Amino acid sequence: MKASRFFISTLKEAPADAEIISHQLMVRAGLIKKLGAGIYNYMPLGLRVLRKVEAIVREEMDRAGAVECTMPVVQPAELWQETGRFEKMGPELLRIQDRHGRDFVVQPTSEEVVTDIARQELRSHRQLPRNFYQIQTKFRDERRPRFGLMRGREFIMKDAYSFDKSREAAQLSYQAMRAAYQRIFDRFGLRYRAVRADSGAIGGDLSEEFQVIAATGEDAIVYCPDSDYAANMEKAEAAAPAHPRPAASQPRTLTPTPGKSTCAQVADLLGLALTQTVKSLVLATDTLDDAGQVAGSKVWLLLLRGDHDMNEVKVSKVPGLDAGFRFATVAEIEEHFGARPGYLGPLNLRKSVTIVADREVALMADWVCGANQEDFHITGVNWGRDLPEPDLVADLRNVVEGDPSPDGKGLLAIERGIEIGHVFYLGTKYSRAMNATFLAEDGKPAFFEMGCYGIGITRLPAAAIEQNHDERGIIWPDAIAPFTVVLCPIGMDRSEAVRAAAEQLHADLLAQGVDVILDDRGERPGAMFADWELIGVPHRVVLSERGLKEGQVEYQHRRDTEATRMALGAVLPHLLQKINQG
Amino acid sequence: MKASRFFISTLKEAPADAEIISHQLMVRAGLIKKLGAGIYNYMPLGLRVLRKVEAIVREEMDRAGAVECTMPVVQPAELWQETGRFEKMGPELLRIQDRHGRDFVVQPTSEEVVTDIARQELRSHRQLPRNFYQIQTKFRDERRPRFGLMRGREFIMKDAYSFDKSREAAQLSYQAMRAAYQRIFDRFGLRYRAVRADSGAIGGDLSEEFQVIAATGEDAIVYCPDSDYAANMEKAEAAAPAHPRPAASQPRTLTPTPGKSTCAQVADLLGLALTQTVKSLVLATDTLDDAGQVAGSKVWLLLLRGDHDMNEVKVSKVPGLDAGFRFATVAEIEEHFGARPGYLGPLNLRKSVTIVADREVALMADWVCGANQEDFHITGVNWGRDLPEPDLVADLRNVVEGDPSPDGKGLLAIERGIEIGHVFYLGTKYSRAMNATFLAEDGKPAFFEMGCYGIGITRLPAAAIEQNHDERGIIWPDAIAPFTVVLCPIGMDRSEAVRAAAEQLHADLLAQGVDVILDDRGERPGAMFADWELIGVPHRVVLSERGLKEGQVEYQHRRDTEATRMALGAVLPHLLQKINQG
Hints:
Oligomer: homodimer
CATH class of the largest domain in chain A: Alpha Beta
Radius of gyration of chain A: 30 Å
CATH topology of the largest domain in chain A: BirA Bifunctional Protein, domain 2
Distance between the termini of chain A: 21 Å
Helix content of chain A: 25-40%
Strand content of chain A: 25-35%
Number of domains of chain A: 3
CATH architecture of the largest domain in chain A: 2-Layer Sandwich
Largest sheet of chain A: 9 strands, mixed
């Protein structure tokens, strides 16, 4: 490709709304161009990156036996009503009416449509397993689109859906997709982790996120440097402490803490470690009558160590809270505790509540909690002596750096990541809702066991940039660079020697199947180099008249701090070797 | 590819709503699957065809110097309001509101968005010419979607847009696109014509349609077998007759024609040729006052030969009618003619009207027309003798088979076609509306001269099928077949010889880059052959144990009536030769 026939358009300044580096660089390098909030044109350079991402995804999906199809962007609401998602999904589901007033949605995913295909097309267990995928435009009407392609409204997703005859077979399909995802992300040349994720109501461990490691990532990834344990924050288990509960050593003491309503303030005031304090969270559950009206409510007290944060996903699995919970109202709190939030605790309750202690709290001694009396806390509290053992003990909290790994093989570390893929076992959730069955080996209809598997095609380049950039611009991995090699001839319009050498090297690289661009725009060297460093093409060759007089050109990888001089004849094999390494 | 890893799903019966053969065959062969009215899933086989169409289009667009990008499916209404199309376009423009109540459209084309890109990105004449294209999902909310992908609502279109600094440069860009389109349609292996089309308000000849020839086509294509003249019906010129007007030979006679209100009925009653009759069409034009209210109207009488049909596009170019016209009301007709439609004519008018005669009518003698008196016509009417020469003479009619070609090189013929491409010079229509300018060589801002160029990616396979099918199914041209070669082994599960030969040939063809599918599904020969004839793979090789014992296999092209036996070793070179021919 010659730059004069392509479209290069770089900017010195990033737009004001570009908060993160990938957004800034994608706009500045001319990869994307904003059309509206969360809606972007994919400009020629950006589209080349997307096409390379798609090609790798497609190859590995095909290799894994998935079959590509394309489902419509605009989908009739009827199917979405069958699963209830038309009503249940919030305003992020973009709803449309056509000229006849019929309801449609712009697809955010395609579980309903693919299940509709399956229930018509897959009639027998002999047609299973089956995996359909598409690489297609999606839309989610985000309340606050931002970060460029990282959290856009219109985006491209690869979504695959597997259909199996049994849970065991579905697990094999899941593992095959998981392996394909590893090959895909390996080929992208990105540092990533596959982390366990919560699989919601379906349970089990069959849900993993693929996270590109980046300091700027929105997600916290928990992993063990000494083992292969990795999970997202929602899922990561805080292992039960191995030590026994220490014996009580302090008397229980009502202690004035005027105006100190947080654990940190209390610890500070009393000169205690924050780890000696216990925080109280008050939840409530409702029971409904046949008409769906609240018939009664129950109040729960959750106890966490002062330095720990509640993990909602874990709390939502506590028996009794697993059908849904809410935070208690101030009235409910005053009714049961006789005090306002900030001074609550499990002692001196006005009315009984169910007490759930985090595993860590259950093994504490001599701890501090609110006294259920304004401006007072109690110190030296001990289980058994001052109050009964907790009604329930459970893992309620987010893990923190240094917690023991749940596999017992070391201590947990935390880093930031950007989710770019997700593999998920769905079970029969959609097939039951849509009555999608096949004839099983016993001749009876059975519901499909399903899985779904997504990759954010347009998010991936943004994640790659968050991980790979410097102050001059993007540094693409070879596999997804818009061009692999850029040839920068200096004074090509004046020097026949430079022109001839550049054209020849361009032709030779093309003949070897290398994705090369020759910058024949006639820019001055400084501007030309700045453009390509911003755009982030990994391999650069500079050809100048002075160098060519000595038969030399300069090679520089985008990560190199200096160029390497080499013979013109040596640069082609050098590039080929470098590219194959990449 | 092995069929067991792919997805083949054929149907014996076409769905009831499939009126045309391409729709029937695409559904039966499992290329597409209906999701809603005019909305289809592209199933794996169909998607393979689309990908091949796209690849050819992409290669030739790139070769012609166009640069690919992708514009959003969901587009903010603001840009569409700048050109007025948001209000002007009918309900076929699918309008959406997002969660904040802002207006959007689902793109039917992208003139607005690409012009918005150009006015930001193309600042100097030095950046021109420039051609951006995309291959992307479109939506038109057709009132009556039908014919499968031929007239769907959601479809894929390649749309390209050229930007030039002058009308002359824009014409070069147009011609470059026209040449690219010819290469594209040549490569598809379809019989097609490039026909002149009307370019609307912009005028000139810079608008051509690419029509796939098919008896079932919706469009009439006019062409001259003895020259390269070709145009669509709207555009095709009815040349002025070369003969002079014959002398009057009959007396003007008021003739009773009770109840005969059509030319055909009158000719029949009077024993005259239909070509001797003249039909009267009454139009009206309105003048508006400053408030946009109708201030006055004018009535026009158009005269066409009895066997000719009015061509609205031509009428809309008659001076005085070119700002818009309507059919006259019955009240207007009675006011001017003193009679009801069916017995109207240019003689004995109650109130004067402007008379526009078709070129043919202007040269007629002794003709028949309505008498402006119920149940009477006048025969033997002659210009000059019985009424003044017409106010205007113009080409008002559709051409008919046998008309002289406007280039004077023979007679016109008419065939049916399916429009699958359109190249169009737009001028400054959009750049003016959106104030899209660049700095011209004189340092002043100038409006872009634009062109737009479309190819119906999803319509093309349907058109190909309308042109290429038989009673057994589709017959794909090699270039866009879902697979080029199918290997049909008989009894592969029983015969190791058959399996080994089929697997080897499959591997050899793949190594040669041939797109081959090996049918390893274990179907019986009859069902297997019927499937592949329905699907329309052009080259088939049958391997059987009996044949292989003699070292023979059978080759059959989808158009062949019989198979050809050949040595196993000869089939690979035979296929390669056949494919290169195709």
